[in-house]
Amino acid sequence: MDKLRMQSSNGVEDNITKIAQLFPDCVTETVDERSGQPKHLIDFEKLKQNLSDSVISERAERYQFTWPDKSKAILLANSPINATLRPCREDSVDFDNTQNLYIEGDNLDVLKCLKETYLHKVKMIYIDPPYNTGNDFVYEDDFAQSSEEYLANSGQFDEQGNRMFTNAESNGRFHTDWLNMIYPRLKVARDLLTDDGVIFISIDDNEIENLRKVCDEVFGEQNFLATFVWEKRTSRENRKVFSTNHEYILCFAKKKNIFEPTRGSLPYTEDILKRYTNPDNDHRGKWQSVALTVQGGHGTPSQFYDIITPNGRTIKLPSGLCWRYTEKKLKELIDDGRIYFGKEGNNVPRLKLYLCEIEQGVTPHTLWLANEVGTNDIAKKNLVSLFDSIACFDTPKPISLINRLLQISNNKEAIILDFFSGSATTAHAVMQLNSEDGGNRKFIMVQLPEKTDEKSEAFKAGYKNICEIGKERIRRAGKKIKEESPLTTQDLDTGFRVLKLDSTNMQDIYYSPKDISQADLFSQVDNVKPDRTGEDLLFQVMLELGATLDSKIETTTVAGKTIYNVAEGYLVACFDPDVTDDVVKAIAQMQPAYAVLRDTSMKDDSTATNFEQIFKTYSPDTVTKIL
């Protein structure tokens, strides 16, 4: 049996392995000072030589985007953590059946926990990160600490233990601290996207330029799709020099050439549909007309001619224009009834575009007006209504705005990730759209349990942190959607599994020779923390062995021991003590892909001796693991 690693992957080691496959001569070996184990390093001078016909001097001037501590931000994105996600049934809704996830914790650590299991599985990411306004800023990563210290202290704390950092413009690191926060999170998140995946990021004027440069580096400048301008408010702010009525949504693809053919269209609006009529009773149905003339600069001689209308009027080309079609092609269109000369047959001809023949939807434009996708004010009023007149969140995004992003991402079976979930608008929008089009989109919400202001209405109503607001919104929205949806109840998933970021389930065990005899050592050593349950251990094992956190989990009891069956036999585990041959045999007979037990689970030496033989007999293809 192999020992489980029980920590997140090491991004540096992964990258070194990839480079070694391409350039083996660029990898050298040294000894780790702490562990004494061999360690691989990159010879960057050799790597440069492999990638260039002339070595670039370190002092040579070249275009680059950098800031203080950028190299440490890259290191932070790649460094592993000893953390896990613990299930919380009491906060969840329909825990055993839902495919939706709500995860509480620092989103960088959560993304690292998700990385291996959800690699290339997320179709769309939407985030609304904290804007750099000089106000309180809680995602401060301390680059002076080691990775171990970072897990225990990934921000600054006040005397009461509350994490808080004021990112005032006067601190001299106004942009630097924000960049150091966003860069590693985007770098890890990119790996989660499918090849046809897309990310949307809300931002304002303070960091739009820096965010674009960061995304150019993380996702590749060639994968930039658009910057959408959203009219977030319609009222005028008269107390300021200028009334800012807009924000931006930056959009990048994982791979632009793969995303573009899959891009979803937006549904026709009433205003668009009103343009289509059928005044001449055309058998092809409703149509609208467009001009037949185009700019003449690139026209061929065959596109310059006079047109005679059905009633004999001669139509000459205006200066600088030519006809869209040659005279021969135009005659074919006229004979087919596709050219309109007006009610009396005497007007300038126009081309008929039929509703039944055009793409089933419209191409998204980059200016999103309030009457199309809503405003902050509308979103706040809707949230207040949902929470019985309590204003629990100041600037939520409107559901209709997120709904548009979901339509553009264009996959009814998609996993949707929001790792700055706030009031959980994204989760609400996913459930709402599923109820309208029968989709089976799944959401993963990630939110730091940031405390609410004690003076706020939310705090007075009993919501002590933002996660409590988000979870309650999903509960209320899910109930309302089910009541109003035309779909049957069983077709609509409005539940969610709550998981909470915590330190690893495993602890280091140390004994001095005087504490325990050699003979008793292996029978007494147990490196699982005493407060962790079997389900806690199961979810950490699921992460390591690639079982998604929404997997179906069934439990059975054999000889008084609980056996977990994940994803219909993908993973079977038992974490109880005193496991006998009967329990091992029951697990083997399920023929799982993976079987996992604790290293101290075996009842006696006989069971430990028989373990391998039992699996060879009943399930030789099963991979057995211990923790």
Protein described:
The chain is α/β, with parallel strands linked by helices and 627 residues long. The strands form six sheets. It has a ten-stranded mixed sheet, sandwiched between helices. It has a six-stranded mixed sheet with strand order 1-25-24-23-22-21, with helices on both faces. Strands 10-16-15 form a three-stranded antiparallel sheet. Helix 14 runs parallel beside helix 16. It starts with a strand and ends with a strand. 33% of the residues are buried.
Question: Can you give keywords for this protein?
Answer:
single chain, 627 residues, alpha/beta, ten-stranded mixed sheet, six-stranded mixed sheet, 20 helices, 25 strands, globular
> Based on helices, strands and strand pairing, what is the structural class?
alpha/beta
Could you estimate the helical fraction of the residues in percent? Answer: 25-40%
How far is it from the N-terminal to the C-terminal residue, by CA?
10 Å
- Strand content bin: 15-25%
- Oligomer description: single chain
* Count of strand segments: 25
Shape: globular
The main sheet orders its strands as 4-20-5-19-18-6-7-9-8-17
Low-confidence runs: 143-166, 516-524
Overall pLDDT confidence: 87
Rounded radius of gyration (Å): 31 Å
The largest sheet, given as strand count, sense and whether it forms a barrel, is: 10 strands, mixed
Number of helices: 20
